[in-house]
Amino acid sequence: MRPALRRYRTLVFDSQRWEGFEFRDDDIVISTPPKCGTTWMQMLCALVVFQTPHLPGRLTELSPWVDIQTEDLGELKKTLEGQQHRRFIKSHTPLDGLPFDERVTYICVGRDPRDVGVSWDNHFENMNLSVLLGARAAAVGIDDLEEVMADGPPPYIEDPRERFWNWTNADGPVESSLPSLKSTLQHLSTFWEARNQPNVELFHYADLQADLEGEFRRLAGALNIELDEAKVPELVGAARFDSMSQRASELAPQVKVEGFWNDDNRFFNVGGSGQWEKFFAPGDVERYEKRVQELAAPDVAAWAHTGKQALETP
Asked: Do residues 124 and 46 make contact, with C-beta atoms less than 8 angstroms apart?
């Protein structure tokens, strides 16, 4: 028997919104830590499901985010209930906080946590917090703000290097804190532990960068969807970073909320790897590795940082 679901609740999202969710036989749940390639995987799923780069709507509407508290849950469920295509649903809830249904395919995407930290910094700076709070107030109210923000708003840190290390060393409870190295590795750990389940699929940002077509085909296979071979080059092309960045107003999350981002285009900021190196002085590699060892088992850490290579290691 599966243990009771762990609740993850912050200002932005609440895993309890999944309670009583009615799955369909072929649903897809994309559950990633923030900034690990969520939107990229949503786009890949959209391209596999619709087999055209010309999507029938904005990605955030085709693939709703159940956890987010800026949307009325009843309306969100109506949207999902009305969808006739195969549903691919977004979540930032770790696997131990999600209802687990054998009919559903659960997909997690890992990414080098050092790049996650850099990407999160840009993401947080680009988010319009006043618009977010307004949307949250309209959707679920703000009576619980003192509870979900018991420690108050995070202090502003001017130095980006210091912000990176603050993200790395943050040690609050994963159930209620802002994203951090700790929460990223914990989320990935919940999927790593279930990696041998037949309906759990692990992907990695580095593998998508190295062989996008191969990973696209692997995704289609995992979803038991036959690809139209004549369309594959166009579909893969539409999933490349430069192509997606040119469609930010269509593909960025929550763009249906006007002003959610200070700049929609900035959501697709760089998309590369290795940006973290500019934050590392001599001795910082050892400092970082020591922190990782405190937070994750060696095999989880290996997968988080290298991707498929760790899965193929005996």
From this structure: no
Residue 10 falls inside a structural domain: no
- What's the pLDDT tens digit per position in 156-182? 788 888 888 999 999 999 999 989 999
Alpha helices in the chain (DSSP H): 38-50, 59-62, 73-82, 113-126, 129-139, 145-148, 160-169, 181-192, 205-210, 212-222, 232-238, 241-245, 248-251, 264-267, 284-295, 298-306, 308-311
Cβ atoms of residues 123 and 33 within 8 Å: no
Which residues are tagged catalytic?
92
The answer to whether residue 3 sits within a structural domain is no
- Measured at the CA of 9, the angle between CA 7 and CA 13, to 5 degrees, comes to 120
Domain holding 216: CATH number? 3.40.50.300
* % of the chain with per-residue pLDDT over 90: 65
| pTM tops 0.90, yes or no | yes
Cα distances (Å, whole numbers) of residue 13 to 7, 78, 262: 10, 19, 20
State how far the Cα of 140 lies from the Cα of 144, in Å rounded to an integer.
9
Provide the domain limits for residue 298.
15-311
pLDDT in tens, 29-85: 999 999 999 999 999 999 999 999 999 999 999 999 999 999 999 999 999 999 999
Domain count, the chain: 1
Task: Give CA torsion, residues 55, 251, 37, 266, to 10 deg.
Answer: 160
